[in-house]
Amino acid sequence: MLNNPTIKDVAEKANVSVATVSRVLNGLTGFSAETEVRVRNAIAELGYQFNAVARNLKLKKTNIIAVLIPQVETTFYVKILNGIEDAAQNCGYSVMVCHVGISGNRTQEYIKMLAERQVDGIIGCSLPPDEKIDTLMAECEIPCVLVSTLSSRYSIPYIRVDDFKASYAATTYLISKGHKNIAMLAGSQDDVVAGVLRLKGYRKALEDNRIPYSPKLVQYTRFSYETGLQAAKDLLNSGESFTGVVACCDEVAVGAISAAYEAGLKVPDAFSVIGYDNTRTAEMAVPPLTTVSQPLYPMGEQAFHMLQNEMEQGKKAENQILPYEIVERDSVKKV
Fold first, then answer.
1. Least crowded by CB within 10 Å, which of 57, 67, 206, 289?
2. Domains annotated on the chain, with CATH
C-alpha cells in the first residue's frame, strides 16, 4: 500500500483516466458498472482518501449555506430551520445558523464573515425590512433567498404566505363566529411586510363586513410574548369593549391569554383569540390556540431548493406564495 496515494495512483491501478476516477468519486455518470468496480477496488487496495474539502476549495465551493435569523427564542423559526436543514443535508449541504439580532444590527458583520468563509448561499429568514440589510444581501455576490419576508427594492427571490389575505381570513373567521367588536394586537408599525400587511388585512375584513374600524382597538407589539402581554393589558385597561382579538403571531396571542388570566378572565369566555403561524406554542397554549397556519416546514424545504437552484444552476428562482389555512382549536367561541 502506498503512503498518501493520489487520484493518479488510483487511475493507474484501475487502468482508467484521472477524469474517470473523479467522476466515480463525485457520483457522476459516463462509465460502465465494470469500470466503477475496478475504481472502487483500486481505492480500497491503495487506501486512497478522497479529500472533499480540498476539492471544494479548488472549485470555490464549500457545500455550506448560512441562515440569518433575527432571534432564536421564538418557536416560529424551529420548523423553518428543520425544513431547511433536512433538505440541505439530503443534498449534501451543511447549515450555519447566524443570529443577526431583532433589529438586524449584526447582519453586516455576518455577511462579511460569510463572504470570507465562502459559503455557497444565504437564506434570510423573517429578517426585519431594512434597506441596509436588503442592500447587503443584494450586493454580497452570494446567492440569497428570503423566507417570510421580501425586499421591495431588490429582486431577491422570496417564499412566503400572503400576509394581507391571511390576516383578512383570520378576522373574517371571527366575524363568522358572530364577533363584531374585534381588537387587533398588531405587529410593529415600521414592519412594512408582516406588520403593516396584517393590519391592512384586518381593516379590510372589517370594512367588507360593514364593521366600523376603531384605532382604539389596535395595540402594537414587537411580535413577542412580552410585548403581546403588555399590549393585551393595555387593551383591557383601556375600557374599550371587545369580544375577539386578532393577534399578529402565536407568541402575541399567548400573551393575550396570559393577560386575561392575570385579570381573572378566561379565554374564550371573556374574549376569543386567534393567532398566526401555528407554531408549537399554539398547540401548547391553554386553551389550545385557534390560529392561521403557515406551512413553516415546507417553506424551509422549498427555500433551500430555491437557493440550490441558483447555487448549482446559476438561475434565480421565481418567488413563491404558499397557501395558509385556519386551524381550529379552543380559543374562539361563537357569540
1. 57
2. 7-50 (1.10.260.40), 64-161+296-323 (3.40.50.2300), 163-293 (3.40.50.2300)
